[in-house]
Design goal:
Strand content: under 5%
Number of strands: 0
Order of helices and strands: HHHHHHHHHHHHHHHHHHHHHHHH
Structural class: mainly alpha
Oligomer: single chain
Shape: elongated
Distance between the termini: 78 Å
Length: about 325
């Protein structure tokens, strides 16, 4: 049986809606938005809806005529329905700018719907470029992490991770202020977020062009927090990230000041990291920092270096590679 909504589009309902949505009544605006949202769920007729000025009506209702959060949320949901299979057209018609405006509606459900919109955009190469090349759109996405609920933060941060791990958008979003939101995401009690954060920092620390931006942010405390409070995979990524950062002179003062060795020692002695590869990463980090006189003095005074070595040495895990690292540290 044919979907009656598709039949309505064929019979010219969009022309009727175009006339109705020019009314000043908030109720009529909401009913028009609801109708377009329902019509947008008919996949076979989405092209006809777009070509029939459906996007223009959504933009006019959501951004200009309506003041109701419910109506605006219906517009965002319609955008989401259409974005799944019409990304290029949606980008061309300014969907990112529409989402960036609707983010600031004082309604949690609308913000969450916008976060979903940014996530869908960030899953598409052209969508990632669209966000990264428009600074106001970037800032709107980051604001969801700064001011959103934990549920909204989780969705928006996945979009930011997609932007930070794309070779074509990484530097653009680093310049646009993506890195400060890492600290916020780590503070949320969400295992997946912390793991994503550690992985992103690990990847960024490997790129020379990203290192100056990382050095300006409180990245080390975030990694230390992950070592103390997160689950295994996040701790592994955090340990690898600390080792990667320790190889760059610009990061070593922060690594020493924020006591990353103390966090690594805690994780090792308490069995939080125990596989050979990760223990080797911890020892390599310690070795790199031991070249710094201030760090070496701290290691001697606090005995953390010896405790870390003891933790890596126990249970028969000390092979020739470990022995060489330990000798290098000492």
């Amino acid at each position: 049986v044919a979907d009656p909504r598709g039949r309505m589009i064929d019979l010219g309902v969009l022309d009727v809606l175009s006339t109705l949505c020019s009314a000043t009544s908030e109720m009529i605006q909401e009913l028009c938005a609801r109708c377009i949202c329902n019509l947008s769920m008919v996949v076979a007729k989405q092209t006809a809806l777009i070509q029939g000025d459906g996007l223009d009506m959504l933009n006019m209702i959501g951004l200009v005529r309506s003041v109701s959060p419910v109506t605006k949320r219906l517009c965002v949901q319609a955008f989401l329905n259409l974005m799944q299979r019409n990304m290029e057209v949606m980008i061309k018609n300014g969907v990112s700018r529409a989402l960036a405006s609707l983010v600031y509606v004082d309604d949690g459900a609308t913000k969450h719907a916008c976060a979903k919109g940014f996530l869908v955009l960030s899953a598409h190469p052209a969508g990632r470029l669209e966000i990264a090349q428009r600074r106001p759109v970037q800032q709107a996405c980051y604001s969801l992490i700064t001011y959103g609920t934990p549920k909204t933060v989780a969705v928006a941060f996945k979009a930011v991770c997609n932007l930070l791990t794309d070779d074509n958008t990484r530097i653009l979003v680093c310049r646009g202020g993506a890195l400060p939101v890492l600290k916020i995401a780590v503070a949320v009690e969400n295992r997946e977020l912390r793991q994503c954060c550690a992985r992103v920092i690990l990847k960024l620390s490997c790129y020379e062009e990203c290192q100056p931006y990382l050095a300006e942010q409180p990245i080390v405390p975030s990694l230390v927090l992950i070592l103390y409070k997160s689950e295994m995979w996040a701790r592994i990524c955090a340990t690898c990230a600390l080792n990667s950062m320790s190889q760059q002179a610009a990061f070593r003062p922060a690594l020493i000041e924020k006591n990353c060795i103390g966090a690594l020692t805690y994780a090792v002695l308490n069995g939080k990291i125990y596989d050979t590869a990760t223990l080797g990463q911890a020892l390599r980090c310690c070795l790199q920092l031991s070249y710094n006189h201030a760090a070496a003095k701290q290691f001697i005074v606090t005995c953390k270096c010896l405790l870390l070595i003891h933790g890596c040495y126990q249970d028969g895990k000390c092979d020739l590679t470990f022995a060489e690292l330990i000798v290098g540290i000492l």
